Amino acid sequence: MKFRYFITLTLQTLIAFSALGGSAFALICLERQNTALATPKQSRWDETAPLVIVDAGHGGHDGGAVANGIIEKNLALDLARRLQRELESAGLRVRMTRSGDTFLSLEERAALAGTHQAAAFVSVHLNTDGEGSSAEGIETYFAEAQPLSARQFTQTSSGTKTVTSADFASTVQRMTCTTTKAQNRGTKARSYAVVAQAPCPAVLVECGFITSATESARIKRDAYRDQIAAGIARGVVLFLETQPKLVAEVTR
Predict the structure, then answer these.
(1) N or C: which end of the chain has fewer CB within 10 A?
(2) What is the pLDDT of residues 122-152, one digit of tens each?
């Protein structure tokens, strides 16, 4: 009898502790839930987020480069759409120069940045170096000579600083290569109309060589194109986030 009484008492004690533990666990979960609900998600931007123009290279009758089963205009649009999603997820506003297989002149693409008062312009392309070439890597182009309206003067602790497309290109190039682990071919100054005529910091990103058998194989993979888009987006976000407060803007 004593043994049976001992077993019964032990079981009752275990059940009581289990119930107490379950109640404590439930209270902890409820507390965490209430804390999460009470803490609003912080936005990295003000009510009016900066607008970025995303330009998919080529389009329509202009197919761009063709190699290893890749047509540049198609892959450029795919990358541009992925970039759009990444930027919007970061809280930025995005305007595409084209959302389908249509043709726009370089001047029309650049002009959209002025029409929509964009903070930045990114043109997405694929690179070539001759059939069968082993050249690989990512490179970002900018124009040294741009409209005066593209040169933004910002306030810093030591005075004012001119923000240029060279700064933008350096940040985008670094973040894209870091994210993709692709060969870093650096930034280059070229007077390409699509970036030279944009009235804001503007870059053209060559996202890899489709003439390289190994790199074109990587570019064909969805996961790698996601990495490219994520890297470019991180560069855009970092560039815009680290700009001091705009104190003046020179117009044409």
Answers:
(1) N
(2) 999 999 998 888 999 999 999 987 665 555 5
Using alpha carbons, list the distances in angstroms from residue 149 to 30, 163, 216. Answer: 53, 11, 37
N-terminal to C-terminal alpha carbon distance within the chain: 101
Instruction: List helix spans (H) across the chain.
Output: 2-38, 72-89, 106-115, 165-180, 193-196, 213-219, 222-241
- The reply to whether 34 and 106 lie within a common domain is no
| DSSP reduced 3-state for 231 | helix
71 shares its domain with 174: yes
Q: Which range of residues forms the domain containing residue 24? A: 1-40
DSSP string, 29-93: HHHHHHHHHHSPPPPSS-SSPPEEEEEE--BTTB---EETTEEHHHHHHHHHHHHHHHHHHTT-E
Label residue 48 by pLDDT band (50, 70, 90).
confident
In angstroms, the CA 169 to CA 25 distance is 51
Residue 189: strand pairing partners: 142
| DSSP structure class, residue 232 | H
Task: Tell me the pTM.
Answer: 0.77
**Which residues, in sequence order, are bridge partners of residue 93?**
51
